[in-house]
Every structure is written in structure tokens, then in C-alpha cells.
Amino acid sequence: MRAVRLAASGELAMTEIDQPTPGDGELLVKVDACGLCGTDRHIVDGEYPSAAPVTLGHEFGGEVVRADGASSIAVGARVTVDPNITCGVCEQCRAGRVSFCPDLTALGVQRDGGLAEYVAVPEQQAYELPPEVPATHAAFCEPLACCLRGLDLAGIEPGGSVAVLGGGVIGQLMVQLARLAGATTVVLSTRQRARRELAERLGATATIDPTANDPIAAIEGPAGLAPGGVDVVLECAGVAETFRQSLAMTRRGGTVVVFGVAPQAALVEVSPFEIFARELRIQGSYLNPLTHGRAAAMVASGVLELDALVSKELSLAEVPATLSVPPGQGDVKYLVRPAS
Ligand code: NAP
């Protein structure tokens, strides 16, 4: 079968390999769609640890084509896969903090993933989707599950105000989730015009071009969109600049969710007095602990606009070249269809 394999740092190619043989308790999944994400680029560049040689792809779903006799998921079922596999027995797992499991491994990072025609998946990682859900939507469950973790920690209240910084696929999902959570002011700041326009179609009540206007003044200033600051900032850009902005545009007693992944070496000066006097809550959000099932339920319900986020569908052969250059202007999500 065809698979996109990382042989070593910087060495990514589509190659022919044997179809995997699922072990006990594993399903063989024929991949319908697999999303590409920024982490894939970091893995290829050696900036994010992986276990090459490995097949990449951690945002995927497909059809079960083989299951062992004891499986509760039948052949023919459509599934989305939580790529993050945890041990289930360590102190962190047993306390429900599964994303902190020291033995966490991920399909598409340390184990062969979904950028292939077929992938072997431990059954407990698979979540069934109704057959009528478009095949491409299964690939959104993983990023959505991460967003749900951020949303759980954000504490958005109906009628509340939210700023989303960064208009990639995560920011676009967050805009929709914030509206579904009842926020009545949802402001997205991102540089690319096409992404601002998309967010407005998806429910943002206002957008800001941070290259033309100071997002802090535009939000928390006396004539701003949320004078005094927003209840919640969802930082989804992963740069020091937006982290700094987040602290300044949150109201007293508000919450900043640090969702974006900043470079490990990035440092920002913060004033402890400000955090104290303004009772700011600065909350990290890491991976998708126990949220994949809810993400699958949301995708199955059709409540989210996902088709508008797909900028391009690619074949497996197109992946290495696509990951070797930055995403095109205005593009949000690339989906790979291994059967194409
Ligand atoms: P993405 O496509 O790179 O989106 C981030 C966007 O932020 C950029 O494309 C850029 O869009 C925008 N941005 C950059 N500098 C900005 C600035 N100064 N002001 C406003 N916007 C700015 O990535 P993504 O897939 O949406 O993911 C977003 C972040 O979440 C990434 O850091 C990713 O690594 C992280 N992430 C975290 C988790 C988790 O578990 N916490 C899970 C998945 C992803 P413009 O060019 O339009 O400005």
C-alpha cells in the first residue's frame, strides 16, 4: 500500500509498504481522509520529537475493514481515531489526567498513522460515526477534541465575550464553539483577510486586522468592542506577541487560555502585580484528554461548519511537497484522501 513515511528528519516521501497486520485488540482502518497540521511540519523539520521511520498523520478517520472476533466495532463501521494512546495504569491516567501520561505515544508521531491507505488502530482509540457523516469530517475530530479541552477550561458563559487570536483552523473552530457556548461577542484577530471573512461567515461578531489596528485598543479601549476587556481570550496563534496581547485585553477576573504552541524558547515579560490586581486566570490547554468522544458527537450532529474550512484535497503523493512549503495565503486546512 502507499504511505507517507518520514525516514529521518527532513526525509519525507510517499513509499510502498506492506499493509499493516492488526494485532490483538486492533482494527484495520481504510483511511478516508487525514488532515495535515502544523505539527506535521514540525515533525518533518525535526522540531517536534517523533520515532522515525514512521508513517505520519494523526487527524484521520475511515472505514473498519478488519476487526477481531471480540471487537465491539463491526467491519464496515466508520470511525474517527483518537491518535493519543496512554497507558491507563500510571498515576496520571488513573487520576483522569491522561494527557500527562509519561508513556503517551501517538499514531502518526511515534506509531504509524493515517497518511496511508490503511492503518492499524487499537480499538479503544476508535469512535464510531454515523454512516451519513461526510467522510472528510472524521478528520476534524482530533483538532476539535483539542479545542473542546480549551473550551472546557475557558468557562465561557452565555452572553459572555470572547476574543480569539489566530485564524487558522483552530481559531475558526474556536469561533464556532464560542458562539455555540453562548458568547454574544466573539472577536477574531488574524492577519489574513480571507480568514477574517471566513470567521465572520462562521459566527464572529467582529474581526480585527492586527497589522492595521492595535487589537488591544480595538477590544478593551473605551470605544472598543468590549470596553474593559473580554471575559475570555483564546490564544490560538502560538506567538509571544499574541500572548502579550491576551493579558492586556482580558477583563479583570477574566481568563486567558494558552492554546497556541509557542516556540519552546519564546519568553514574555509579565507583571505579577497585574495578574494579582486584575485577578487574571492564565490557563494552559494541552491535547485532548477524554474529549474525542464529544468531538465525534459534535461532528456527527452536523452543528459545525467544516466544509468551509477545507482549502484543498490532496493525494498521498502530494503530501511531501505540500509540507515542504508554508500553507498558501488564505488556506485553512488541507485534507489528504489516500484513495485518490
Ligand atoms: P495555524 O494555521 O498556524 O494558525 C495560527 C495562525 O495565527 C497563523 O496562521 C496566523 O494567521 C495567526 N497569527 C500569527 N501571528 C499572529 C498575530 N500576531 N496576530 C494574530 N494572528 C496571528 O495553526 P492552527 O492549526 O490553527 O493552530 C493554532 C495553534 O494551536 C498552533 O500554535 C498549534 O500548534 C496549536 N495547537 C494546539 C493544540 C493544543 O492541544 N493546545 C492542538 C492543536 C494545535 P494569519 O496569517 O491570518 O495572521
Characterization of this structure:
The chain has helices at residues 38-44, 91-94, 141-154, 169-180, 193-202, 215-220, 240-249, 272-277, 292-301, 319-323, and strands at 2-8, 11-16, 26-35, 54-55, 59-67, 78-81, 84-85, 105-106, 118-122, 126-129, 161-165, 185-189, 206-208, 230-235, 250-258, 281-284, 310-314, 333-336. The chain is α/β, with parallel strands linked by helices and 340 residues long. It has two domains: 2-134 and 306-336, Quinone Oxidoreductase, Chain A, domain 1, CATH 3.90.180; 146-284, Rossmann fold, CATH 3.40.50. Strands 3, 5, 6, 9, 10, 17 and 18 form a seven-stranded mixed beta sheet that branches. A hairpin with a 2-residue loop joins strand 1 and strand 2 (11-16).
Summarize this structure as a short list of keywords or feature phrases.
single chain; 340 residues; alpha/beta; Quinone Oxidoreductase, Chain A, domain 1; Rossmann fold; seven-stranded mixed β-sheet; six-stranded parallel β-sheet; binds NADP nicotinamide-adenine-dinucleotide phosphate
